[in-house]
Write a structure and sequence with these properties.
Order of helices and strands of chain A: HHEEEHHHH
CATH topology of chain A: Sufe protein. Chain: A
Oligomer: heterodimer
CATH architecture of chain A: Alpha-Beta Complex
Low-confidence stretches of chain B: none
Largest interface: A-B, 20 and 19 residues
Distance between the termini of chain B: 35 Å
Mean pLDDT of chain A: 92
Low-confidence stretches of chain A: 150-154
Number of strands of chain B: 17
CATH class of chain A: Alpha Beta
Number of strands of chain A: 3
Distance between the termini of chain A: 59 Å
Strand order of the largest sheet of chain B: 4-10-9-8-7-5-6
Helix content of chain B: 25-40%
Bound molecules: pyridoxal-5'-phosphate
């Protein structure tokens, strides 16, 4: 059954027990993304790791359907503490996977490969991508603020 | 009680014969978003294109005459359906455009007045000053909220709204306090597309009239489902969409009180809405032509007229009775499921057939997906009425809406699929 292909146990597990949910107090950038057709919402913060400026710490709070919630939980597992380049590659990969343009790569997406079944339901692709788009937006903003402060101190 | 043969009705709707999701029978419970179309409507449109297609109100040839006659005869038929005169009906793209036509009338009159332009007699009612008030309700579809927010933003008028009670009704006590001497417009829905609530039009009209405010009724969810007589309702404007009442996509209606239509500056301008044009100046045609710029959607209008005939043959009283029966059944069956909560009135008096609900522990989008797997088409989300979701502290709802072609078995299927969703998600 197609439905079980989308709602794999691993997805339902992330949905019921999300990883890393809750907002960090200190952050360099915060974004709020919504899916206006169904009302799914996420607030996502990116903090530049004070010990290693290449690493981006992720925190988030969200509400929405199982797919959007599970996807955010997976994003946290995959991208928390990663560099922008690593994160951007993962975003590109999940987008391509949901367009059925690439075979899912577990090394890049971890449990995110279980979201592959979402590609059969075009209306749900937005749910799966909400947090990943929010991460990219926040990461770019966070790095932008860092660059500008660096420029000022230069 | 249903007084007509639903099976016979279903046979007129070709789409209801198809299957979805690997051979499931289609259970279409999304008529509140758009209704399905019977053969009679499809045939009328096709017949127009096959035999009479020409640009209405232009051209000196026979088929242009026929197209114009078909268009104007349809206008008369559609007008009669809501107790109106033909010339007081303006065709638009949809209800959204019809409401914008009215909100832009206020903006355009206000702009012209600010520039010291002469306004037609009676147009002063559309001129807003800073601090004037526009009143809506908290249960509006975005189509009857956002245009008024924008109007307020551009003119300096203040948008106020009538709140809702916990059981999904308008708070009429607060309406008395909110509608006051500065109120220039009261825009409200006849039936909420999310809650199903049917509002007391007369009560709001009386309050609005006492302060000489213009009333705008969003009848998108009432005209398709019950007998509506616009003169009895006493409003100044009424907007609705053809596609929710068995008619084609791309056709909406605005009814306006004749003296107001006559006084209104145009909204969309161009061909077919003029009287005389020179390089310096244009004078405008009388309504309804003044508000129908460009070549009109004649085939859609003809299709909508066939939809009106179809509904008249059933009788709107019978349509309403059938829907009341299905609504009662749906509320009873859904409310009996532990963990399911109806968002909106649970008694069927002054209530239409939009039944919204939430399932504890299962997000509406997921409920909709499980239903879809069983061939049941519902709408999930905020239904273009986001403030209503906020009012009842739900992120979204699942909504079933019923029409003439739905039957008891489909309500049973809905309730059973909701139980399946609970099982699937382990709640
Ligand atoms: C109550 C209500 N008002 C307005 C609209 C807007 O109608 P349309 O999208 O056809 O313009 C709808 C339906 O979408 C509705 O249900």
């Amino acid at each position: 059954m197609k439905l079980e292909h989308m709602y794999q146990d691993i997805i339902l597990d992330h949905y019921k027990h999300p990883h890393g949910k809750g907002l960090a107090e200190d952050f360099n950038a915060e974004v709020h993304h919504v899916n206006p057709t169904c009302g799914d919402e996420i607030t996502l913060r990116v903090t530049i790791d004070p010990d290693d400026h290449k690493k981006l710490i992720v925190s988030y709070d969200n509400q929405g359907c199982s797919i959007s919630q599970a996807s955010a939980s997976i994003l946290f597992d995959q991208l928390n503490g990663k560099t922008f380049a690593e994160g951007e590659a993962a975003v590109d990969h999940i987008v391509a996977m949901l367009q059925r343009a690439v075979e899912p790569d577990e090394d890049i997406l971890g449990d995110g490969i279980a979201l592959e079944g979402v590609a059969q339901y075009p209306a749900r692709v937005k749910c799966a991508l909400l947090s990943w788009m929010a991460w990219k937006d926040a990461a770019i903003q966070a790095l932008g603020t860092e660059n500008s402060t660096q420029n000022e101190s230069n | 009680m249903t007084t007509f043969d639903v099976a016979a009705i279903r046979a007129d709707f070709p789409i209801l014969g198809r299957t979805v999701r690997d051979g499931r029978r289609l259970v279409y419970l999304d008529s509140g978003a758009t209704s399905q179309k019977p053969f009679q409507v499809l045939d009328a449109e096709r017949d127009f294109y096959e035999k009479h297609n020409a640009a209405v109100h232009r051209g000196a040839h026979q088929i242009a005459e026929e197209a114009t006659d078909a268009y104007e005869a349809a206008r008369a038929n559609i007008a009669h359906f809501v107790g109106a005169q033909a010339n007081d009906i303006v065709f638009t793209k949809n209800a959204t455009e019809a409401i914008n036509l009215v909100s832009y009338t206020f903006l355009n009159a206000t702009l012209k007045s600010l520039r010291g332009k002469d306004l037609p007699k009676g147009a002063q009612r559309f001129v807003l000053a800073e601090g004037d008030e526009i009143v809506v309700t908290e249960m509006e579809h975005h189509a009857n909220l956002v245009p008024w927010q924008e109007l307020a933003d551009k003119t300096g008028a203040v948008l106020r709204w009538i709140g809702l009670t916990d059981d999904g009704r308008l708070d009429y006590d607060s309406a008395k306090l909110i509608i006051g001497s500065r109120t220039k417009v009261v825009a409200f829905t006849h039936q909420s597309n999310l809650l199903g609530t049917v509002n007391h039009v007369a009560q709001l009209v009386e309050l609005a009239k006492s302060v000489n405010a213009v009333t705008v009724l969003d009848a998108c969810q009432s005209v398709p489902h019950m007998a509506v007589d616009v003169v009895d309702l006493g409003v100044d404007f009424m907007a609705w969409s053809g596609h929710k009442m068995l008619g084609p996509l791309g056709i909406g209606c605005l009814w306006g009180r004749a003296e107001l239509l006559n006084a209104m500056p145009p909204f969309i301008t161009g061909g077919s809405m003029i009287e005389t044009v020179s390089m310096e100046k244009t004078t405008f045609a009388a309504p309804p032509a003044r508000f129908e710029a460009g070549v009109p959607q004649a085939a859609q209008v003809v299709g909508l007229s066939a939809a009106v005939d179809y509904l008249n043959a059933i009788g709107m009283g019978n349509v309403a009775a059938h829907e009341r029966h299905l609504t009662q059944l749906a509320i009873t069956e859904l409310a009996a499921i532990p963990g399911v909560r109806i968002i909106g009135p649970t008694d069927t008096s002054n209530r239409g057939s939009a039944v919204s609900f939430v399932v504890d522990g299962v997000h509406p989008h997921d409920v909709g997906q499980i239903l879809d797997e069983q061939g049941i088409a519902v709408r999930v989300g905020h239904h273009c009425a986001w403030p209503v979701c906020r009012r009842y502290s739900v992120p979204a709802t699942t909504r079933a809406t019923f029409y003439i072609y739905n039957d008891d078995s489909e309500v049973h299927a809905l309730a059973s699929a909701v139980r399946d969703a609970q099982k699937f998600f382990g709640v």
